[in-house]
Fold these 2 entries.
Entry 1:
Amino acid sequence: MVAFALLWGIVFVQMVTGHDPVLGSAPKASAAGRGGARPRSADGGSDGGEAAAAAAAESVETTTPDEVEPEYVEPEPVEVEVAEPEPAPVITGQS
Amino acid sequence: MHVGGAAGGREAEVAAAVTEARLLDAHNRLSRFLPDSELCRLNVDPRETVPVSPLLLEVAASARRAGVLSEGLVDATLLRDIERAGYSESLAGRDGRREVGAIPAGKSPRPASAGPYRGWSRISVDRRAGTVTRDPGVEIDSGGIAKGLLADLAANDLRGHADYAVDCCGDVRVGGTSGRLRRVLVEDPAGGAAVHELALRDGGVATSGIGRRSWIAGDGRPGHHLLDPSTGRPAFTGVVQATALAPTAFLAEVYSKYALLSGPERAGERLPHGGVLVLEGGGVEVIAPSGGRVAVPVP
């Protein structure tokens, strides 16, 4: 009975501090869904929800409107080199 | 006249019009056929020393220089002789080749030589005083020296343009800041297609010949305007046309006459910057600046 009570107490503390194995898996799945595949942590993915959420937030690529539609830059006029016609020939002759 | 510039056609057109107007004014002042011209007034002025305009001063100085450069063959003081030979009124607009029927030819061609009087050596100019001094009786004929001189003066006005070509009745000065080559076609004295083509970036080219300004004299003999100073009569040397290249149009004009009057054997030596000769019989020779001569097929 005492052992049962101790065991339950540990479970209760775990639940109170947020280490609920069921609740803790939700943020992890969400981050993967938005950020795409993410390398698993070295400890096999058993890290907490906050760390996962923070990591997910870092991996999300945000796009600003400026990047979607870059500022329009007026193209500079390009001087097209037009080949000048050769000088008109002249005639030398008796006056 | 051709004037081109990077600034566009309008500026070039204005420059060409201004230069043409100045050339026309210069013609009116230097013509020996206009009694009121400044040249005619100088020639009849009894004073030994006469104040003249800067333009006429240049012409007088050029008359002397032409004589020096050509060892007396290009003599711009043979006014009375050329009038006696039949050239006493303007031939502008006339082509003697049509009237004579062909390029005039002499019976026994021989090189011309300097005259005994050498009137050109009796002219002096004082640039500071703006006066011309000449011996009594010495008269200047601008016909053989002024076209090249005027082309050079016009070129000086146009030197800031990209390209220009000043054509004073066949005496041409070309140049421009672009430094581009301009083709120069050498006219056939018989009236056919060009006998040769030259290319010039900056400089003068002039042609002298005995075809266009020719006539049948009172004695029935053919005449033309290039005189042998030693006889005062039209020269028949065996060269019917000479084209000269030179740094300036004035020099080209002097060299072309010098070459023609020297005859076929020495004509090449008279073209230090190269040129083209057309000989009696129709032969064409191209003279390289180095002095080499190349006969070219007649087109």
Entry 2:
Amino acid sequence: MTQALTYDSIQVGRTLGPVVHELTPEYVRDYRVATGADAPVAAGVGSVAPGTMTTIFSTALLGDAGVNRPSGGIHAKQQYRYLAPLRVGSRVTTTGRVIEKFIRNGRKTVVYEALTVDEQGRELARCTATSIVPL
Amino acid sequence: MTFPTIRRKVTADMVALYGRVNNDRNMIHYDDAAARAAGFPGAVAHGAITAAVLDEACRAHFGAAWSEAGRLDVKFVKPFFVGDTMSTHGQQNAPAREGAPAVWEVWCENGAGEKVLVGEAALEGSA
């Protein structure tokens, strides 16, 4: 996908993804350091990763920031439903769907839901994100 | 039972690393001049960092079950700026009905005591 995702191009019902993330120990450690988690930040394979990493997975559904996600979007709301632990060392896949779009106070807003599953298809988290898109 | 208060300074290094992890190249997060050009007084931290710290407090509060039955709904209500210190807060609301899960009103404040994130947290399936 190389085309910029704009408000006009995002239609309700549009499916998003899949995007795949490898929860390597290094990736989870970096996330913990970036969010300032208290030591120890080491993440051994099989340990539980922070559930809010799903923010990254759902945001990725809107496209790669450097390629097709316009800079300047605002994250307005996020809902997390954790269903099973995110495990360090696993590969997770996230898919989504646009469920609403509207303009309020001049702000172009898109609401979309995301489901993250592991390699066995087990549901790990359901998220709903509300984002204000810049274009 | 009190909700854990986590106080955390969000540094430029944290925000830069979060940007790399999230592949976010919006310069309002990393450059004061870019942030001022966008109407902010300084670089804006990713709101998701405040949500992550709040989630950390929820995990401490609700225990291991949080990662398989936690529900956290948040709304970012005010920009949080790089270099500021945030804190997590929560208070229990009365259950909506008998047997309903205990719902906690949760929020994050900036160093001036202003709410930057508001929301609620609960352990689904618990009472």
